[in-house]
Amino acid sequence: MKMRQILMIGILALARTVPAPGQADLEERLEDLGQSLPALAERLDEWRKHPIDLNRADPEDLAGLPLLDDREVRKIIRERKKGPFLSWQDLMARAGLDSARLSGIRAFVAI
Predict the structure, then answer these.
(1) Taking 90 as the threshold, does the pLDDT of residue 85 lie above it?
(2) Residue 10 belongs to what H/E stretch?
(3) DSSP 48-92
(4) Dihedral sign for Cα atoms in the order 88, 90, 93, 95
């Protein structure tokens, strides 16, 4: 996948976490996360090549994913303590992720 495509996937997934119009825009959200667009593209490419294992990743690694909000990270950590995620459907049901959010992260994480 070309770097431009990876960047677009990341921006689209990140846009889901951006507040409504009139509040912070995408650049401000990236700045809040301490990332630039090229840095985000590089991280997304790295995660695509070496997906983060949701059953084993450190909380800090999960929190570093701009594609998940803090509530989702906490829920993933809490639920995996009860047992590993066995499938994408299991992740959705137990962590409360909807299909749109799963679509946004699926290329960058593994179960």
Answers:
(1) yes
(2) helix 3-15
(3) HHS-EETTT--HHHHHT-TTS-HHHHHHHHHHHHTS---SHHHHH
(4) negative
